[in-house]
Amino acid sequence: MRNVFVIGNDPFNLETMQGLREARRYDFQALLPTSSVLKADSYDFHQLVGDADEELRQFGQTVDGIVTWWDFPSSALIPVVTELWDLYGPDLRSVLTLEHKYWSRLIQRAVAPEHVPSFAAFDPFSDDALSQVLDAGLTYPFWVKPVKSVASYLGFLVEGPEDFAEALEIIRAEVSKYGDPFEQALERVHDLPHEIEWLGGNACLAEGIIGGWQCTVEGFVSFGDVTVYGTVDSIREEGVSTFRAYHYPSQLPTPIQRRMAQIAGEVVTAAGLNHSCFNAEFFYDTEQGELWFLEVNVRLSQSHCDLFAKVDGASSQRAMIDLAQGRTPRMPYRLGDFPVAAKYFLRTTVDDGIVRSVPSEDDIAAVAERFPGTRIEIAVSVGTRLSDLPVQETYSWELGRIFFGADSHDALESTFAEIESMLPFEIEPVEGGS
If you ran DSSP here, which 8-state letter would residue 387 be given? Predict the structure, then answer.
């Protein structure tokens, strides 16, 4: 039995991983309390490194690998702690290169300039922050976001000076949640590019609007070789940026999927990523035939793990574990129980509210009986105030997630509608909510 430590070892994703055929070979251990890397009000990166190292020292048995499926700070802890313990993992510089949204854009522009929108970095605490954006050539509308963000946190669509001022006020108040620990991570890299060192971890990125058919390529780098093993469509609510669902396999034309895989491989290679999973997000403008690079994450997408299991026969966590063991992964293909699979989000767009009731165990059991293989995560509980939920995207609140398979892409939307109707929530609006 080999001991593999998981940073952010939440029960739902652990259950997915334990469904792997080879899971019996491993004893999966939690590294750091989940609350300290996922739901904390603030993060001290140096402290987390020290705490992780101390936990491993106190374990008293062999440490055979360290993995995570979560974003920062977990993703940046992996290269630091694996280096301390002489284990397989990516280099910290490569991880931060891709996680720093501005630094990553510089790499993307060097590799594939025709697929990158206009962008500019700016200091949100500067009196001339807007001038820094407009003087760089951007025009309204554009997006602003911190150079380090999680799950669209503090991402704003700016259509004019008033929007920018409103976004800036919120960013200034909250950017340090991830910006300060990201700054600590950057301090661990020698010889940072001057511009990145000057910007630090609390800077922001403005970039031109891109859109179209959104999808994500999933892959890994093993001993310098890049492999892409799947493409997942990302479905947004009509007219807004909010994610509605993920569908697998993608319905994009195969040549477009291959081009995305090629670009993603060139970007992660240019950044020096190795011994790591990654997922890269793109937009394909079907009217203009243009392909736009959105961003790359230096981890697998936990949102996609169950989809790969349902369609291909193994969660993408298999690749993550193999890489941590110094093995080149071999992912199955179309050996699962369903031709297609999806993850849908249960959301509400009320300004604010208090959850008064959630789906019961009987409700959830009825869904599983009606649609075998369906898995449901409820993200709130009775008494939860929506504005207290951690790490939410800007324009809605997440109540839960549904994972299910179907016989065709056409069946996914109707299946979700039926499942959603079987899962009742009651939310009492709060006056003056934000």
Answer: G
